[in-house]
Amino acid sequence: MVSTIQKKTLHSILASKLNKLSIPPSPTSSNSGGGGGEDFDFSEVFGPLTSSSTPYLIDPEIIHSRSHSFVGPSPRFTTSTSLPLSIEQETGLQSCDEEEEEGDEVDVEEPDVEEEVQVKEKKEVSKMGPGDFVIMRVVGQGAFGKVFLVRKKGFDENDESDGIFAMKVMRKDTIIKKNHVDYMRAERDILTKVDHPFIVQLRYSFQTKSKLYLILDFINGGHLFFHLYRQGIFSEDQARVYTAEIVSAVSHLHERGIVHRDLKPENILMDSDGHVMLTDFGMAKEIDESSRSNSMCGTTEYMAPEILQSKGHNKDADWWSVGVLLYEMLTGQPPYTHANRQKLQQKIIKEKFKLPPFLTSEAHSLLKALLQKEPERRLGSGPTGADEIKKHKWFKSVNWKKLDEREFKPKFKPDVSGTDCTANFDQCWLAMPADDSPAPTPTSGEHFHGYTYVAPNPWLSNESL
């Protein structure tokens, strides 16, 4: 059967051609069969006559891009045996895009709203730059640049964030000089692949000739280190919630073949509700299940022995760091410390750590299991991965499903006065001048092609429809 749109389209074509139809005079009245008939030339309407062996439409043309929709490829026609006509390609469905005469009704496919919004966002970010954001404060600094609190110009008034974001700025010349191009590209690529309630979300990325920019959600509760420094130590109940949320986030990364490799209190933020948020993927790497990395990276106090010994490491190294984090939350300092870096490395590789007597036996058990120097014996290294850790008796009171749905309410909430509150950030950052200072342009600029990104609109996800 012929669809409604095909019928109406062909009807429109036929009407247009009939208006131009000419009836030529007969050369001889005898050929007319008695003078009444005329030879009507319909080839202009229907096209040249076709042989009986090919009475069907030509093979449908594939449209890879259409003005009213970005869903494709799609055929112009559905081949039908009920239409023994040969229509020229130029009289196809393209006529729907032309102006219709008054009174004509043509069914046009409804535009795909989600696709149009995504295209609009891509166009928006392709034109986006530092000038689209107002710098308010400095809230952090790293090896390659600063992190600013910014407000997006012309933000949507219905946006709960009030247009407030964190803008991470990195100098290309420094990145290239330190041979960290792959790390910076990996950070951006990894952030586009993760979506988790306890991982900071990337919203935009773009670049100038001299710098890279990541626009992320601003987490206004400050760093976990800031609150740990203030309180000295956390109770086991308080540390249990934070550790469980960290385990959930790291498990999400591992399921996607990503190893963080720089877990430490400075890279864990706290939101206004008291939940922790994992950030800073500058050292992260995608590693296959059967592969290992030999890079020496991370912060020494939190680095696993196999990284320090260059034996090759995988996701198991993250679980060591989680053990160090838990130890520090419960005691106020990492299990291994020393002012001399080389001696610190030797302590981590060779020495046993001490378990404070004021901790419960369950906490002792978990710390021993996570801080195993041999990675194959470490909790979380088995075939079930993070589930080994989640089933440990220290986490017995944790409902992991409710935790991931953020129904597990932390008892401590940081003191915040608004989305742009910086009261929980160290004064050493806030006192810095809030300016994105100029930087030299590297002579080689091909390192960062394809860096631009815009996050999908969450309101158009399947869950929200």
TrEMBL record:
Residue segments, region Disordered: 19-45
Keywords carried by this UniProt record: ATP-binding, Kinase, Nucleotide-binding, Phosphoprotein, Serine/threonine-protein kinase, Transferase
SUPFAM superfamilies for the chain: Protein kinase-like (PK-like)
Gene Ontology annotations for the cellular component aspect, listed alphabetically: nucleus
GO biological process, one term: response to cold
Superkingdom of the organism of origin: Eukaryota
Enzyme class per UniProt: transferase
Protein name: non-specific serine/threonine protein kinase
Provenance organism: Papaver atlanticum
